[in-house]
Design goal:
- By secondary structure, the chain is mainly alpha-helical.
- It has a domain of 141 residues.
- It contains nine helices and no strands.
- α3 packs antiparallel against α7, α4 packs across α7 and α7 crosses α8.
- The two termini are 29 Å apart.
Length: 220
Amino acid sequence: MAGHGEATENRVFKNPILEKLTHTHIAYPLTIFYGLGVILLAYTLYYGILGPGASILLFFGGLLTFTLVEYLIHRYTFHMEVSSPKKERLQYVLHGAHHNFPKDKSRLAMPPIVSILLASVFFLFYRILLGEYGIPFTGGFVAGYATYLCVHYSVHAFPPPKNFMKILWIHHALHHYQQPDAAYGVSSPLWDVFFRTMPEKRGFNVKTKTGYIDDRSGNL
């Protein structure tokens, strides 16, 4: 009964079809976008459209570009200034629900239909802008999105690791529970450093009762 109440409270849309579309198993977008990234790079190499060195360089250039786009979207779209009820509703649908229910693993990625449409728009944009160079570049860009999903899902679904990757868990936890106006980078803190939005680590500890950053009952 409690589970049903939580599900009801966690709803974003009253319409059952729209509500179902807000839930996505992480395996689907990871398969789609890592697969697409590999296909675009392999296509470029197989048909000799560009040399191997240029193709790989463009692939990683696209991946790096995605980290910037991720930062900008998170900062200026997901955390937009709310000046009207419509904007408040839009912000909640896009990102606010995730902040309210960070343990909801089915909402840690955009629905595939939405992300595929966006990926298609970016592909056309980079293809027009860069010509043939846009093929491996877009491959890296969508692989960057899949990498972002890996990091975001891992941070919310697993305890912090005992290695250098722990910094990503702390960085994102600071954004969620202390400083929502800082630490906008998820897959990397690079652009937070560049744009001076790094969070202050004031009395923060990832050691909670369960070890997960979403354990609000712990000493965060």
